[in-house]
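Action item from last meeting closed. Structure (136 res):
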């Protein structure tokens, strides 16, 4: 654990670790700053970020968040690979390969057409290749 942070420093570190900008994190951590000019907040946030103990705390929080991640992309790929290697049904292989292709961006773009009122929208996924082959 890093050295003791003030409540404002701790809240700032948490917000930055969660992905907020420095200015947004500073405004959350120090509510009085919401009335300040943007330039003043930027300066204070930058000074806060420059403190070693704050930087260390942000790194600690990010590491904790990384550990708590429930399911990574890599885990998804490994799980789908296991399905392909030992499927219960042949259709499982096709589904797993299709999902891997989508995850990696190896799929055809789909065109979605709709018609009708907002309360009743009909959606059809049109395969562009088939439509082009039919002369449409």
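Sequence:
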């Amino acid at each position: 654990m890093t050295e003791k942070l003030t409540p404002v420093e701790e809240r700032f570190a948490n917000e930055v670790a969660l992905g907020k900008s420095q200015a947004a994190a500073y405004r959350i951590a120090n509510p009085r700053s919401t009335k300040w000019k943007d330039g003043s907040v930027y300066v204070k946030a930058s000074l806060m970020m420059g403190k070693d103990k704050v930087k260390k705390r942000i790194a600690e929080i990010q590491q904790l968040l990384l550990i708590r991640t429930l399911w990574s992309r890599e885990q998804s790929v490994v799980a789908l690979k296991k399905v392909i290697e030992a499927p219960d049904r042949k259709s499982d292989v096709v589904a797993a390969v299709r999902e891997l292709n989508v995850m990696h961006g190896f799929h055809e773009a789909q065109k979605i057409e709709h018609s009708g009122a907002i309360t009743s929208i009909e959606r059809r996924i049109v395969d562009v290749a088939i439509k082009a082959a039919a002369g449409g």
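Note appended to the action item: Residues 7-68 form one domain.
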